[in-house]
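Tutorial sheet, problem 5. The three components below are modelled jointly, 1033 residues in total.
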Amino acid sequence: MKTRTVYILSYSLLLALFLTVPIWAGSYVLEILIIALWLGFLGSCWNIIGGYGGQLSIGHGTFVGIGAYTSSLLFNLYGITPWLGSFAGAILSAAVGLGIGFLCFRFKVRGIYFALITMAIAEIAKLWFEHMELVGSTGGLFLKSVHGPSGPAFFQFETKWPYYLIILGMLVAVLLICFLLERSKMGYYLKAVRGDEDAARCLGVSAFRCKCIAMCISSFLIAFGGTFYAQYRMYIKPDLLMGIHFSVELVIPTVIGGWGTVLGPVLGALLLIPLAEFSRMLTDIIRNTFHTTGLKGFQLIIYGLILIVVIRFMPLGIVGLWSGLRRKKASVKYAKD
Amino acid sequence: MKEISRRGFIKLTGTAAAGSLLSGFPSIVRGAEKEILIGAVHPLSGMVAEAGAMAVAGLELAVDHINKAGGIKSLKGAKLRLAVEDSESKVETGGIAAEKLIRKGIVCLTGSFQNAVTLNVARIADQHKVVFVNDISTLDELTHQGFKYTFRVGPTLSKILDTGVAGVIEVTKNKPVKTGVVIHISELTGKIVSDAFIKKTQERGNPWKFLKRIAYPENPMSLAAEIRDAKELKPDALFLVCRLRDAIMLVEEMYKQRFDVNGIFGVVSSGHADPSYHKQGKLSDYTFNICPWHDEVSEYAKKIAQEYEARFKRPFNMNGAQSYDAVMVMADALERAGSTDKDDLRKALMATKLRNKTSIGGAIEFDQYGDNKNAKSGLMQLHAGKSKIVYPPEASTAKAIYPVPVWDKR
Amino acid sequence: MFIAQAMIDGLLQGGVYALMALGLSLVLGVLRIINLAHGNLVLIGMYTSYYLFALFGIDPYVSMLASAVVGFLLGYIIQWLVLNPITGAPEEMAVLVTLAIGLIIQNLLLTVCGTDYYTVDTSYRLETIMFQGLRVDLPKLLAFLSSLIIVGGFFLFMEKTDIGRTIRAATDNREAALLMGVNVRRIYCLAFGVGTVLATLAGSSISTFIPTSQDAGVLFTMASFVIVIAGGIGSHKGLLLGGLLVGVLEEMGTLLFSGSLKQVMSLGLLVIILLVRPQGLFGKEA
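Model answer (C-alpha cells):
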C-alpha cells in the first residue's frame, strides 16, 4: 500500500542519515550519539518485558552486567573473541532472567512488588559480583588490549566510528525484533496480559508463559549491550552497570519516549542525552551571566525540571497514546474539580 | 494521525539533537597564539563535589601564577586559560566532557578523581593524542593501559602503601603494633585498598597480626555493630578505609562505646583526609592517615598553601596540591617544548624534572609508563584539628603522638 | 551479654527505621507510587533541624514542629503540582517523576548548602546511659521514644480522624471511595503531605546522631525500602514490627556475617518475603 511505502522510504532515509554520521560528525557528536544509541538499545530490550509485557523491572542492570562480565572474562581468560562470548553472556543472562521470571510470575508477583523484587535482586547481583575473586580483585575488570590488525576480530577498534556503526546495527536489529514481536501472536498475548492480566487469562492466554518468554528475550538481548559497553570502555566495574542506580537509568529513556512502542526508547534516548548537554550549556550561560562559579549541580536541577515538565505534558510518552490499551488504574476516571 | 506524529517527532527530535550538538562554544585556534587552553574534568557535583572543587581551585591558582609570571615565554608569553567541565562523577558524562573540551581546542587535559572516570577520560585523550596529566587517581593500572599520552603526578597505590607501612612501623616503634583490625567499606575501592595494605604488610615480614577484617556495607545507618565487634578483639591499632560519613560515625561510635586503641590509622582513606573529618574536635584528633599529602616544609609550598587558603577559604591539601603541580608540569613542558604540538609536548613531558612542587616527594620525573618516579605519600596525624605530617622524616612537621590519649582523657 | 547489647541497639535502631519508612509505606500504599525521592525528603527534615540548631540553638526535638510544617507543605505541593496530574498514567511515570524530584532536591541542597557534612552538636550527642551493665545510646534512645510517640500518633490519626479514615478507605478501595463522593485528589495531596511529614520528622530525629549531607538521600531511600518490603506495604503495624526486626537482625548479623554478606543475606530474605508473602510479614492481602 502507498502509506506503507512512504513509511519504509522515510525510515530508510533516516537510517541512511544515521549511517552517514561518522563522515560529517566530530568525535564529540559521535560520543554523544554512541551513548544515546546504546541507551536506546538497552531501553528497547527492556521494553520487551517492561513496555510490551507491562512488568516494571528495575533490575535489568543485572543482565547488562552478566553480559559484560561473561564476554569479558571469556576473552581475558581464554582468549575467546567477544563476538562469540557475547552469545554466551546472552544465554547466561536469559537463563537468569527466566529463573527470575519463573519465580516471580509463578508466585503471581505483580506491579510494584515485581519492581521491588527486581530492585533487590539487582543489588544482590551487584554485591555478589563485587565479591567474586575473579572480578573484583584488581579494582574492576580491565580488558586486555589487542592492538593492530587483529583488533576488530576481538571487537576492539582504534577509532570511534566502528563502535558507532555496531551499536547502530544492534539498535536496528532490536527495533526490528520489537516490530515483529508487536505483530506476532506473542505480541498480542502480551498486550492482552498487560491490559488486564486476569481477563486475558480468562480468555485462555497463558500469562505466565508469555511473561516468562518476554523476560527471557529481554534479558537475552540486553546482555549484548553489556558486551558492547565492555568493549567500548575496556574497563568494567560492578557498580557501573549493575544495581538499582543503573537499572533505573536505563528505564528512563523508554518511559519518556513511550514504552510499549517500537520507537519510544530510541526517541527517549535521543532526546534525553542532548537534553542533559543542553542543561549543562544553559547552566554555563547562567553562570557566565551572573559571573559566578557557584551553582554546583545546577544542570541537574534544570534536567530534573525539564524531565518533570515532559512527563507532566506527555504522561504517556512522546509517541503518544496508543489506543485501546489502558491499565486497570487508568480506567478509573474521575471528574476534574 | 499516528504516522504523522511519529515521523514528525523523529524530525523534531533529530533536528533538536543535531542543533544542540552542533552549537556550542567556538573552537579556539591552536598554535602559537595568545591563549593556551588547558582542560580539566572534575567531579563538581555528587558525593565528592568538595574534593573536585578543591582540585579546581588548585588549577585556578596555578594558572594565575603562571600568567602573572608572564605566561609561556617560549610561546611569546601566551597565557594559560582554564576550561573546566563537571564529570558529575559519572563515566559517561566525564567522557562527553573530555570530548567537549577537546573540541574546544585544549592543548592538555587534567582530572578526574574517580578511577573509572579517569580511565575513560585518559582513553579519550589518548585517542586524540591530547596530553593527559592525571593529578589524583591512585589506580595502579591507569598508566599500564598502553596510553602514550597519559602522565600521572601523584603516587600510585603501591607507592602510597610502601611509605604508609614503613611509616606506621616507624612512628609506633616505641610501642610496636602487635595486633590490628581492619575496618573497611565493602565497596570495591575499600576492598582493594585493604587487600593491598594487608599484602604490603605481609611483604614487610608481618610486623603485626591482623585479627579480623570487618567490612561494613556502603552507606550504613549505624556502625555500632562493627565497633562492638572490633572492641571484643582488643586490637592495638585500627586500620580504616572509609568515606567521610563512615569515618565520622566510626569515631563517634568508638567514643560512645569507649573503645580505646593505641592508634587509628586511615589507610588511603578519603574520609579521613577530608577537612570535614578534621573538624570533629577531640573525636578525630590523633587519627593517622596514610595518603599523599602536600609539602608542609618547603617555603615554596607553604607560600602557595597560604595564598590558596586565603583566596578560596578552603584548606590546602592533596587535592589542591596535586592539581597545582599538574598545571606546573604542563606549563613547564610547554615552556621547554616551545610549541603546542602534541608529540613535542609529549617528548617534553617525558623529560620533565620539576623541582618546585607542592606535594611531598622528590622532583617530578616520569618513568616510561608516565608515572612520577619520585612521588611519595606520607603518614599524617591530626593535632588539634590540623593535619601534621609525621613521616617521612624529610617532610615531617611534627612528631607523632603514639599511643594516642584515651577517650576519657581528651 | 553481647547478644543483649546487640538486641538493645537493634531495637533502638529499628524504631528509627520504622518512623523513617512509614512515610514511604503510606505513599506506596495509598498512591501506589514508588517514591525514589523519599530519602531526600528525610534529608530536608535533617537540614531544617540543622539550620535551626546552628542559627538559633533550637534542639531538633523542638524544631520538629517546623520540620513537620515544611514537610507537609512540600509534600502537599509536590502531589498537587506534579503527581496528581499524572495519576492516570502508568506507574513508571510516577517513579521517574519522583526520581527527578529527588535529583532536584539533592542538587538544590548542594547549591544552597554546599558539600559539607554537618553535625547537630547537641549536648547529648555523644552521651550514653548504663543500664544494668548494658550501654544505651542516648540520642538513639530519644529518637526511638520520639519515633514511638509519632508512630502512635499516626495510628490514632488514621483510626480516629475523618481524614485518616478517608485515606484508609481510599487505600483499600479507590473506586468505592470515589463512589462515596470522596475528593480523591485532595486526599492524595493530604496523604503525600502526611507521608512527607513522617519523613521530615524522622530526619529531624536522626540528625542528632547521623551526619547531614546533600548526598545522603539515597542512603535513606534504600534503607526505607528494605523496611517497607520486610514489614509490608500498607500495613502500618507491620511496618513497625518490620523495622524493629530489621534493626535487630542487622545488629545480630555481624555476629554471623560481615559486611556485604550481611547485606546479601538481608536482601535475599527480602526477595523471599516478596515472593512468598508480598504483603510483608504482617501486611494484609495486596
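Marking note: The longest strand of chain B covers residues 35-42. Full credit if you identified this.
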